[in-house]
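Quick one, probably user error.
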């Protein structure tokens, strides 16, 4: 997964945006956001999932979001590279708290 910053301002600004490029089969680690919910506009096929089990297939043009503090992840299931535009707020300069890797069982399920 490659992230290219689009908007990255210092405080007091809080908006943060990046272009995320997923290789086929790529997945993020579990993570949380402490500020405004993560919003992802996806350009390919994938899945978003919360630790609590809420899961959604995502396709080109879909917008997904997670509540602040909600443990979640996203992954790409396409055969080609896919991009997504991700926007969120940074709180004290931190836009995400990255947690443990997704297991193969979680990815396959």
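Nope, works fine. Designed sequence:
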């Amino acid at each position: 997964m490659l992230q290219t910053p689009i908007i990255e301002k210092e405080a007091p600004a809080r908006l943060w945006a990046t272009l995320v490029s997923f290789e086929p089969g790529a997945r993020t680690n579990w993570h949380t956001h402490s500020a405004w919910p993560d919003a992802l506009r996806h350009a390919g096929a994938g899945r978003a999932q919360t630790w609590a089990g809420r899961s959604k297939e995502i396709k080109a043009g879909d917008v997904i979001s997670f509540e602040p503090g909600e443990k979640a992840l996203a992954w790409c299931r396409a055969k080609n590279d896919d991009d997504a535009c991700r926007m969120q707020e940074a709180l004290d300069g931190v836009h995400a708290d990255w947690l443990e890797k997704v297991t193969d069982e979680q990815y396959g399920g």
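The helical segments are 104-108.
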